[in-house]
Specification:
Layout (H helix, E strand, L loop, with lengths): L1 E5 L3 H12 L3 E6 L2 H6 L11 H7 L4 E4 H7 L2 E4 L6 H8 L1 H4 L3 E4 L4 E2 L7 E2 L7 H8 L4 E5 L5 H5 L10 E6 L2 H14 L3 E6 L4 H5 L2 H11 L11 E4 L4 E4 L1
Parallel strand pairs: 1-2, 1-4, 2-3, 4-5, 5-8, 9-10
Antiparallel strand pairs: 6-7, 8-9, 11-12
């Protein structure tokens, strides 16, 4: 597929590199390509400047949000949660119409210091706001409950035996995203339901952040183990 990854941070770079390695035609989108390439300092998380990554990945083009989205079949929102709507607005609604938009962002609010809080939370979600703002897009929420390394290489932890969630209103879009995740190596994929269920996936982030603090590493994920009874005969299905 032709895939646009919006965002030049660590998650965007990691996803772009992995999807390109799988044979997809990938471009990275940013607000100002010239400014992104001109940065010479690491970001607040210590990630080296984008120009260093791009120098080693010159086969992946860097374009404006609008240019990247216009040519793409599938768009990945890997911007930070607070900037997601602004970035997708810059990508332009017409360029999102009818396309699968994969939201891996989390609406973390750092305005009150650490740890951050979620905004929105409980009665809304970042994914829902994106779907409401761009009703012709086919928004799918997924991969937001793990770090970027596990997004693209789940096998590095527990042989890949951990869970990834998906939320969205469009069944076809969710199937497309599920196939893409399977290419990346994900096996335990749980469909939570429509786009409103993204609230639950996003609300896992406060737990995730506190686990990171306790464990001292971001290399962990959730595994859902359940015995589901279905039908009058009590048929069981293990998850």
């Amino acid at each position: 597929m032709k895939i646009a990854v919006l965002g030049t941070g660590f998650a965007g770079r990691t996803l772009a590199g992995a999807l390109s390695a799988l044979g997809h035609d990938v471009v990275v989108g940013t607000r100002d390509p010239g400014e992104a390439l001109a940065r010479s300092a690491a970001d607040a998380m210590g990630t080296p400047p984008f120009s260093e990554w791009h120098a080693a990945n010159q086969h992946i083009a860097l374009e404006t949000f609008a240019e990247a989205a216009a040519a793409a079949e599938l768009i990945v929102n890997a911007t930070n949660g607070a900037g997601a709507l602004s970035a997708l607005s810059a990508a332009r609604s017409a360029n999102l119409s009818g396309k699968v938009v994969v939201d891996v962002s989390n609406p973390l609010d750092f305005s009150q210091g650490m740890p951050p809080v979620l905004n929105p939370v409980n009665t809304d979600s970042n994914a829902e706001r994106i779907q409401h703002a761009f009703p012709e897009a086919r928004v799918v929420k997924t991969l937001n409950t793990m770090n970027a390394g596990l997004m693209v290489d789940p096998g590095r932890l527990g042989g890949g035996d951990h869970s990834v969630f998906v939320s969205g209103d469009d069944a076809g879009a969710k199937n497309t995203v599920t196939a893409l995740r399977q290419e990346l190596g994900h096996r335990d994929i749980i469909d939570l339901g429509d786009i409103t269920t993204a609230r639950g996936a996003e609300m896992m982030l406060p737990v995730w952040l506190r686990l990171w603090s306790v464990l001292g590493t971001p290399d962990f994920n959730f595994k859902i183990a359940a015995e589901v009874r279905r039908g009058r005969g009590g048929d069981r299905r293990n998850i």
